[in-house]
Write a structure and sequence with these properties.
The structure is a single chain. The chain is rod-shaped. The protein has 142 residues and is mostly helical. It has one domain. The model has no long low-confidence stretch (mean pLDDT 83). Helix 1 crosses helix 2. The termini are far apart. The longest helix is centred in the middle third of the chain and has 117 residues.
């Protein structure tokens, strides 16, 4: 066998092995290409669904957030109003307590004077008589 024949035989053998490998590779890639096509179609359906669903969902979310913000501002205003009314009420109660304190003091002094007059009725008469006598003496001395 000649060297050229041996080289030609090796080249043909390599080409046959390459052809067999290519056929096996094509058979292996067939299911992979099918799966890639299925995945691409699923991704397209998902993107279409997202496009249809996200826009209305965002619109609803905006309207809900607007409602929440309105409720928040109304609540803040009402809390402020309640705070103001509580401050006014506190001022009124303080004024009433002061007035009641003064009136109770006057009433207690009057009650004590009444009790004293009731318990010691003659003492006041004696004091007033002694004052009258003293004032008469002072008039006579003048």
């Amino acid at each position: 066998m000649d060297i050229t024949t041996a080289v030609n035989f090796a080249v043909v053998l390599a080409l046959v092995i390459l052809a067999i490998s290519m056929v096996l590779l094509v058979f292996a890639i067939g299911p992979l290409l099918s799966q890639i096509t299925s995945t691409a179609l699923s991704f397209q359906k998902l993107s279409d669904t997202m496009e249809r669903e996200v826009a209305p969902t965002l619109k609803e979310l905006r309207s809900v957030m607007d409602g929440v913000n309105q409720i928040k501002s109304i609540t803040a205003q009402r809390v402020h109003d309640v705070g103001s009314k509580a401050e006014e009420l506190t001022g009124s109660v303080t004024t009433l307590v002061g007035t009641a304190k003064k009136e109770s003091h006057v009433a207690s002094v009057g009650l004590l004077a009444g009790l004293k007059a009731y318990l010691y009725p003659h003492r006041d008469e004696q004091k007033s008589e002694s004052k009258a006598i003293e004032s008469n003496r002072e008039r006579k001395n003048v």
